[in-house]
């Protein structure tokens, strides 16, 4: 059976940060089979993975850059945060590909899935991490399902930088990448995973209409270059504004079918733009068709908290008396209470951790603030943006 151990820290020196996390998570015996690392953009990623490999030479190592971490110790958003999840047990497989983007995402995901299945045919859930910039995330889901079928749950996130949309990093064993994806397949028959996501933003005003698109490239909105129309609607200067300027305030919303809206607790699913071209083309995180209507949104703080509480009640009801043996977590920086000119997330994190805790102690927990999240919706593997997405692993 797989065993999970986690720790997090805020520390300037990358090697020391890993040493502290490994000691806190595993104690004197550092031997393990997998270490997953989330680290904010101020760290030396090569030093992080080198230190893991020095302390646990038999372990596979994967990781990602992010804009903040969440561990069982709480949330931290400095430039020097590290969180790990260490796993002991052989019922897993690791795969990775490089050079993934919006045009080849399906083929790359199929390649990842085939690697996993060849190593562990009994995989029943997949933790997936991809580059957060220029990728067709819905096509990644389709690629995994082409190999494993839709019954295998895909959960995870996309890597981020410090919310600038410039570059994000992925770590696999001894290498650091900028346009890679990795996946961990779990084949422990005693485990099941429960996933759910929620956002709490509201669509507002008249929609923008996609008038030209190609794959994930959103070329025109309302007959104008997409970036020009989008930036102007946000009140930004299209010539000087960056994706980093738009990310905190510019969530785009697609209308959901009524049945999915009822389950989601919201009539829309959100999308983030992390890359644009000089000609005004925006890189959408999923494939998009001409004719699609896109609404701008407003952050509803009361809705964020009430929807979070509703989600936790639903997860607790499905779990019954069970408590998770580990939780993976992907989140958006725009969630929480807006105080002192910043979004404070401690209360929101405590509201999600307390119901999953045992005698007040959270289970091993690995969370990150990234560019996107994967969680089921309507029984289907789905890509989300601007959500809290929780992936709780339970022993059957």
What is the terminal-to-terminal distance?
11 Å
What's the total number of strands? 28
Based on secondary structure, the structural category is alpha+beta
Rg estimate, integer Å: 20 Å
The parts where pLDDT drops under 50 for at least 5 residues are none
Helix count, DSSP H or I runs of 4 or more residues: 9
Q: What global shape is seen?
A: globular
Helicity level, as a percent range?
A: 10-25%
> Number of folding domains?
2
Mean pLDDT rating: 96
Oligomer: single chain
Strand content: 35-45%
Largest beta-sheet details: 8 strands, antiparallel
Q: What would the keywords be for this entry?
A:
396 residues, alpha+beta, 8-stranded antiparallel beta sheet, 6-stranded mixed beta sheet, 9 helices, 28 strands, globular
Explain what this protein looks like in three dimensions:
- The chain is an alpha+beta fold and 396 residues long.
- It has 2 domains: 3-198 and 305-395, no CATH class; 201-299, no CATH class.
- The protein is 25% helix and 38% strand.
- It has 9 helices and 28 strands.
- The strands form 5 sheets. Strands 14, 15, 16, 17, 18, 19, 20 and 21 form an 8-stranded antiparallel sheet that branches.
- Strand 2, helix 2 and strand 3 form a beta-alpha-beta unit.
List the helices and strands and how they pair.
Layout (H helix, E strand, L loop, with lengths): L2 E8 L3 H13 L7 E7 L4 H11 L4 E7 L2 E3 L2 E3 L4 E8 L3 E6 L7 H15 L5 E6 L6 H12 L4 E6 L11 E3 L2 E3 L3 E6 L4 E8 L2 E14 L2 E5 L2 E2 H9 L8 H4 L5 E4 L2 H7 L3 E4 L3 E2 L5 E2 L9 E7 L1 H19 L6 E6 L5 E3 L2 E3 L1 H8 L11 E5 L2 E6 L2 E5 L3 E8 L1
Parallel strand pairs: 2-3, 8-9, 22-25
Antiparallel strand pairs: 1-6, 2-6, 3-10, 4-5, 4-25, 7-12, 8-12, 9-26, 10-11, 13-28, 14-15, 14-21, 15-16, 15-20, 17-18, 17-21, 19-20, 22-28, 23-24, 26-27
Helix pairs in contact: 1-2, 3-4
């Amino acid at each position: 059976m797989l065993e999970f151990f986690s720790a997090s820290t805020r520390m300037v020196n990358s090697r020391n940060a890993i040493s502290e996390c490994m000691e806190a998570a595993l104690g004197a015996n550092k031997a393990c089979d997998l270490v997953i690392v989330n680290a904010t953009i101020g760290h030396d990623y090569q030093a992080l993975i080198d230190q893991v490999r020095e302390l646990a030479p038999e372990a596979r190592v994967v990781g990602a850059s992010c804009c903040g971490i969440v561990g069982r110790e709480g949330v931290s958003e400095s430039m020097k945060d590290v969180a790990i999840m260490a796993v002991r047990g052989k019922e897993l497989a690791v795969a990775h590909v490089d050079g993934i983007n919006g045009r080849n995402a399906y083929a790359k995901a199929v390649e990842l899935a085939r690697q996993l299945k060849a190593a562990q045919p009994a995989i029943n859930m997949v933790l997936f991490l991809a580059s957060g910039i220029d990728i067709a995330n819905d096509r990644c889901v389709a690629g995994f399902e082409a190999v494993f079928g839709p019954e295998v749950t895909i959960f995870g996130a996309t890597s981020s930088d410090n919310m600038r949309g410039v570059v994000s990093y992925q770590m696999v064993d001894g290498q650091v990448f900028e346009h890679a994806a990795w996946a961990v397949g779990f084949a422990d028959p005693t485990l099941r995973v429960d996933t759910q996501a929620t956002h709490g933003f509201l669509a507002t005003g008249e929609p923008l209409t996609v008038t030209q698109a190609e794959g994930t490239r959103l070329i025109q909105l309302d007959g104008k270059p997409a970036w020009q129309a989008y930036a102007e609607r946000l009140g930004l200067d299209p010539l000087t504004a960056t994706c980093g300027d738009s990310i905190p305030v510019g969530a785009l919303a697609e209308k959901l079918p009524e049945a999915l809206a009822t389950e989601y607790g919201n009539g829309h699913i959100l999308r983030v733009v992390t890359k644009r071209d000089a000609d005004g083309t925006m890189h959408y995180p999923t494939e998009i068709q001409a004719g699609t209507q896109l609404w701008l949104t407003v952050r509803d703080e009361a809705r964020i908290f009430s929807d979070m509480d509703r989600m936790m009640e639903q997860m607790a009801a499905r779990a019954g008396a069970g408590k998770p043996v580990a939780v993976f977590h992907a989140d958006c920086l725009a969630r929480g209470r807006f105080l002192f000119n910043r979004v404070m997330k401690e209360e929101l994190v405590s509201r999600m951790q307390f119901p999953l805790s045992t005698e007040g102690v959270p289970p091993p927990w690995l969370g990150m603030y990234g560019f996107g999240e994967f969680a089921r919706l309507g029984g289907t593997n789905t890509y989300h943006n601007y959500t809290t997405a929780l992936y709780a692993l339970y022993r059957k």
